[in-house]
């Protein structure tokens, strides 16, 4: 069942996301009813989407929450398993190799933690929409900024938690002193 669900589930979530939004014909009516002072602004927009709390949106939120719980469990169980395996090989490998393995596991954990920058904004986006928060637009824009920072933060964490990369970045620059002799006159050198 898992092999069949893997390629099908994203398509089903995409279709649920498409169904969660309003039809183009309903959007201006919704704005007219609920936000009449912004009707002219919305009318001039070439493309916009309105999502309200409906069956498809709730279904998508439930699937996302269940998926998040499943991924969280996999993360916790695999982390526990990695530390158990590391503890099991501690006496079988040299201290230097053990420290390398331990540093690799810590680096992986830090990179997994950065993944929360990818998972939390959509989850909070759903909460903002479901709660009808007053400053939803500003909050969603902030969440998009956090989401966009994921790759930069991941690169920084990778460099900071991987000793060879960290040592390369933190090394002292080689300072070479160049002496440039300039001749202004026939026999003068500065």
Automatic annotation (TrEMBL):
Matches recorded under InterPro entries: 7TM_GPCR_serpentine_rcpt_Sri (IPR019429)
Gene3D superfamilies noted in UniProt: Rhodopsin 7-helix transmembrane proteins
Transmembrane segment boundaries: 49-77, 108-130, 142-165
Native species: Caenorhabditis brenneri (Nematode worm)
Highest taxon, organism lineage: Eukaryota
Protein name (Swiss-Prot/TrEMBL): G protein-coupled receptor
Signal peptide stretch: none
UniProt keyword annotations, A-Z: Membrane, Transmembrane, Transmembrane helix
């Amino acid at each position: 069942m898992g092999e069949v669900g893997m390629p099908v589930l994203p398509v089903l979530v995409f279709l649920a996301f498409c169904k969660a939004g309003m039809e183009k014909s309903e959007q201006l009516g919704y704005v007219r009813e609920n936000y009449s002072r912004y009707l002219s602004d919305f009318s001039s927009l070439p493309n916009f989407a309105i999502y309200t709390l409906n069956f498809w949106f709730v279904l998508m939120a439930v699937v996302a929450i269940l998926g998040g719980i499943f991924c969280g469990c996999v993360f916790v169980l695999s982390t526990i398993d990695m530390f158990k395996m590391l503890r099991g090989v501690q006496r079988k490998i040299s201290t230097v190799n053990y420290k390398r393995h331990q540093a690799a596991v810590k680096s992986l954990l830090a990179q997994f933690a950065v993944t929360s920058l990818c998972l939390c904004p959509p989850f909070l986006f759903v909460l903002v929409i479901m709660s009808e928060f007053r400053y939803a637009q500003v909050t969603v824009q902030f969440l998009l900024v956090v989401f966009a920072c994921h790759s930069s933060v991941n690169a920084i964490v990778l460099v900071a938690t991987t000793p060879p990369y960290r040592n390369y970045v933190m090394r002292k620059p080689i300072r070479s002193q160049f002496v440039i002799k300039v001749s202004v006159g026939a026999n003068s050198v500065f």
